[in-house]
Amino acid sequence: MRTADIITQKLTEALAPQSLKVDDESHLHAGHSGHREGGQTHYRVYIVSNAFENKTRVERHRLINGILSAELSGGVHALAIHASAPGEG
């Protein structure tokens, strides 16, 4: 299973998002730190979930990082997070 699919599955199961998009941006980081042949190292996540209501940006990021801790300690080098509650910007 591709890492983007694992990220999608874990976030969907844990946060029941209204919307979720996981972009593999590894190709944009060729030659940079953490990049490896075959990609699957750099991701950008856009997620909207009720789970983020009344949480700060830092709390939202910590929640996602906790859910994806295995991936972040493994092959994922970078994860950009755009997390919001329904109705936010």
Task: Give me the number of helical elements.
Answer: 3
Q: What's the CATH class label? A: Alpha Beta
Shape: globular
Count of β-strands: 3
Find the CATH superfamily: BolA-like
Tally of separate domains: 1
Sheet/helix structural class: alpha+beta
Radius of gyration: 13 Å
Strand content: 15-25%
What topology, given as strand order, has the largest sheet? 1-2-3
Low-confidence segments, ≥5 residues, pLDDT <50?
none
Sheet with the most strands, sense and barrel status? 3 strands, mixed
Helix content estimate: 25-40%
The CATH architecture term is 2-Layer Sandwich
- Order of H and E elements: HEEHHE
Structure notes:
The structure is a single chain. This protein has 89 residues and is an alpha+beta fold. It has a single domain (3-84), classed as 2-Layer Sandwich (GMP Synthetase, Chain A, domain 3), CATH 3.30.300.90. 31% of the residues lie in helices and 22% in strands. It contains three helices and three strands, in the order αββααβ. It has helices spanning 3-15, 57-67, 69-72; strands spanning 19-24, 42-48, 78-84. It has a three-stranded mixed sheet with strand order 1-2-3. The longest helix has 13 residues, at 3-15.
